[in-house]
């Protein structure tokens, strides 16, 4: 390939190679990937080495800005980028664009750059290089356009490549990066190092054995755990029913009946108030107890009515117990709902399996 003479326009970041491009000069997806790989590859090869150099990523907004400027076909820096803290590199060719060659040309400017003095050799350009390897730059977007003519140059039918960077370099004020051991000063927000570059999606700086992967999800085991948890809570005697009524809300009928009938259920022995025991009847005969004495020593008047009242209350208690036995358990609804939940989980997991 024949190379034309580089045009030294005095503008840092401008470089012309007289090459040619097809009728339509658009960057493909493969081209954008190539540009990304080349940028990061060269950034990881700087001499001297860098303590901190960001891995750059493709940015569609920067690409759109580059497209908007490329169609203007103007061979001068974009004045709008200064206010946006964006940098740029420009390239012109009258042959099909060779991105590998273009990136190499920009990077080879390091031969004309003095790191110690942070300056270019006299009458030489190195601005493409300093922008390409600016440590803080983390985003790049490029675009190409076919220009019949280009303002500022006498060439016709050329292809114009524009690459925008964020943030821009400050070549006049400071060095593009700090010299030192690779990745020794990667910040906390980009604490990983890959091919001498700091980045979030790179491998860890301190390579350690990764932890073993978690065991595969076992749906049957999970279902068994859920089922056991639900059923154990239903049958646990320590679980307090959330909707249980307080004693004041629902009186204990059986307890109330028992307390009211307790005097009538104590053994009452026929005899006098001195507590005649069973088997004393023979003694009564020996002592000459008369038949009419029962009224004096037996049941008092009114005891028959109390006995009938007690029998009626006992029958009422039996009816209450019968009614209670016919009612469903208080937690029947609470048992049914979790069981339905378990059944639903089994159905869903069986479908997923």
UniProtKB/TrEMBL annotation:
Keywords: Signal. Residues 29-173 form the SCP domain. It comes from the Eukaryota. GO terms for cellular component: extracellular region. Residues 237-336 are annotated as: Disordered. Residues 254-268, 313-325 have a biased composition (Basic and acidic residues). The keyword Signal applies. Residues 1-23 form the signal peptide. The keyword Signal applies. Residues 238-253, 269-312 have a biased composition (Acidic residues). SMART domains: SCP (SM00198). This is SCP domain-containing protein. It comes from Oncorhynchus mykiss (Rainbow trout).
């Amino acid at each position: 390939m024949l190379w034309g003479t580089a045009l030294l326009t005095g503008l840092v970041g401008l470089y012309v190679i007289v090459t040619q491009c097809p009728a339509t000069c658009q960057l493909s997806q493969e081209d954008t990937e190539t540009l990304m790989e080349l940028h990061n590859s060269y950034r990881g090869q700087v001499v001297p080495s860098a303590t901190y150099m960001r891995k750059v990523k493709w940015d569609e907004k920067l690409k759109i800005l580059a497209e908007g400027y490329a169609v203007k076909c103007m061979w001068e820096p974009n004045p709008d980028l200064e206010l946006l803290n964006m940098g740029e590199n420009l390239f012109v060719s009258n042959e099909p664009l060779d991105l590998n060659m273009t990136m190499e040309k920009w990077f080879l400017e390091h031969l004309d750059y003095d790191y110690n003095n942070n300056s270019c050799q006299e009458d030489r350009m190195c601005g493409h290089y300093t922008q390409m390897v600016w440590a803080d730059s983390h985003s790049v977007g490029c675009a190409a356009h076919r220009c019949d003519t280009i303002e500022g140059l006498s060439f016709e039918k050329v292809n114009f490549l524009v690459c925008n960077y964020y943030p821009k370099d400050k070549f006049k004020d400071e060095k593009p990066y700090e010299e030192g051991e690779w990745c020794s000063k990667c910040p906390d927000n980009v604490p990983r190092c890959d091919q001498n570059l700091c980045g979030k999606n790179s491998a860890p700086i301190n390579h350690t054995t990764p932890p073993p992967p978690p065991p595969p999800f076992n749906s049957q085991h999970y279902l068994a755990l859920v089922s056991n948890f639900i059923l154990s809570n239903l049958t646990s005697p320590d679980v307090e029913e959330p909707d249980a009524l307080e004693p004041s809300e629902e009186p204990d009928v059986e307890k109330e009946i028992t307390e009211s009938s307790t005097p009538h259920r104590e053994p009452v022995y026929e005899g006098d108030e001195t507590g005649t025991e069973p088997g004393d009847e023979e003694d009564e005969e020996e002592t000459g107890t008369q038949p009419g004495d029962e009224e004096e020593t037996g049941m008092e008047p009114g005891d028959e009515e109390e006995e009938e009242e007690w029998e009626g209350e006992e029958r009422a208690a039996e009816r209450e117990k019968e009614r209670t036995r016919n009612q469903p358990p208080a937690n029947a609804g609470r048992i049914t709902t979790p069981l339905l939940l378990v059944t639903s989980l089994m159905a869903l997991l069986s479908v997923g399996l």
